[in-house]
Design a protein that fits this description.
The longest helix has 15 residues, at 130-144. The protein is built from twelve helices and twelve strands. The protein has 344 residues and is of the alpha+beta class. Helix 7 (185-193) crosses helix 8 and helix 8 (204-212) packs across helix 9. The strands form two sheets. Strands 1, 3, 4, 5, 6, 7, 9, 10, 11 and 12 form a ten-stranded antiparallel β-sheet that branches.
């Protein structure tokens, strides 16, 4: 579910998470990964939670409608079934509302934020391949009158926003080089059907299998295989952290020697409180090659955590910048298009 094209201000931490009852909290927190890939998954959740299957489905659907979760479904690892990049624009302040709305209107844009920097509009763009991605960025620049710099992923150290909502601790995952997948027409159809998450039916995988022409058993085996081979980062409840009280988030960047960036990146990725960490390509106007994201319930908390991380890892001597998000214009999962749609 996309955000409105108008900006949603990232206000100070409120109480949505604290106000959630115990059942809602467990639904939001405990099933961000490890979701049961079985015929009747809601019933399995109900058995673990001690309530009815109908109640589980009703609560999750309500949390979805309230904007606290975007979907129950897959999170694909970056660049496994398509091409993507982080991109940035330096937009005159007076033009920012117009440009942000135009950028968000592109289906290939799945995240779009205002950040505190001369480069003040940051978005993620996805396409079937690198050539299509380059064309998308050209179209975005032509439509807005603002050229974008592309900062594609070079090396991943930790990319997973599925962290514990109470403590901030997160699950580490092994970063494995996985070649881009060659998918069948039916698998592309399955991906397309999963864009907005599982349908709210007792047997959601059967509904997906019928629509994709795969059958329930093959849908379940395909999702399990994608989890095993790293195509999927996780499958489960995809929460919206801002709506749950984690309203301060900062993109923290450093300019470090190329020979040392991997060592620094792995050290940062080992720390709790880091939700994303990776190396990106630089540009002539963007010298920073090491990135991490820190989420918190307030700016002071995020700044303190960043300072502690930089000191422990040994980054304090290097040029750096901290870019807090101030407005969210669009936030949804990457939209991967099936072959027929791509051809059209």
């Amino acid at each position: 579910m996309d955000q409105s094209p108008q900006a949603t201000e990232l206000a100070p931490a409120g109480g949505p998470l604290l106000a959630a009852d115990a059942l809602d909290f467990r639904l939001l927190n405990d099933f961000q990964r490890g979701f049961p890939l079985v015929s009747e998954p809601w019933g399995v959740l109900a058995g673990q939670l001690g309530c009815s299957e109908v109640h589980v489905m009703a609560r999750l659907r309500s949390l979805h409608d309230e904007g606290k979760i975007s979907r129950v479904g897959p999170v694909f690892a970056p660049n496994r079934i398509g091409a993507s990049t982080l991109a940035a624009m330096a937009v005159p302040e007076a033009e920012l509302p117009r440009v942000a709305m135009q950028v968000s209107a592109f289906p290939g844009v799945n995240h779009n934020y205002r950040r505190e920097h001369r480069y003040n509009l940051w978005f993620v763009a996805s396409a079937p391949d690198e050539a299509a991605l380059a064309r998308l960025l050209e179209h975005v620049g032509a439509a807005t009158g603002c050229p974008a710099i592309a900062l594609p992923l070079v090396e991943e150290y930790h990319i997973d926003l599925g962290f514990d909502l109470a403590s901030g601790r997160r699950t580490r995952h092994a970063v494995r080089p996985v070649p881009r997948q060659a998918l069948t027409r039916s698998e592309w159809q399955l991906i397309d059907l999963l864009q907005d998450g599982l349908p709210w039916t007792v047997r959601p995988f059967q509904a997906l299998g019928d629509a994709a022409g795969l059958g329930e058993g093959r849908v379940l085996s395909t999702l399990s295989r994608w989890l095993d081979d790293g195509t999927l980062r996780r499958f489960g409840v995809v929460v919206r952290h801002r709506e749950l009280g984690w309203r301060a988030n900062a993109m923290c960047v450093w300019q470090v020697p190329e020979a040392q960036v991997s060592a620094f990146g792995h050290a940062l990725a080992a720390e709790d409180g880091v939700s994303l960490c990776y190396r990106r390509r630089t540009s002539s106007d963007w010298p920073y090659n090491l990135f991490c994201m820190i989420h918190g319930q307030g700016r002071a908390e995020v700044n303190a955590r960043r300072a502690g991380l930089a000191a422990r890892v040994g980054l304090t001597a290097y040029p750096a910048a901290v870019l807090f998000s101030t407005d969210c214009y669009k936030q949804c999962g990457a939209r991967y298009r099936a072959p027929l749609e791509r051809a059209a």
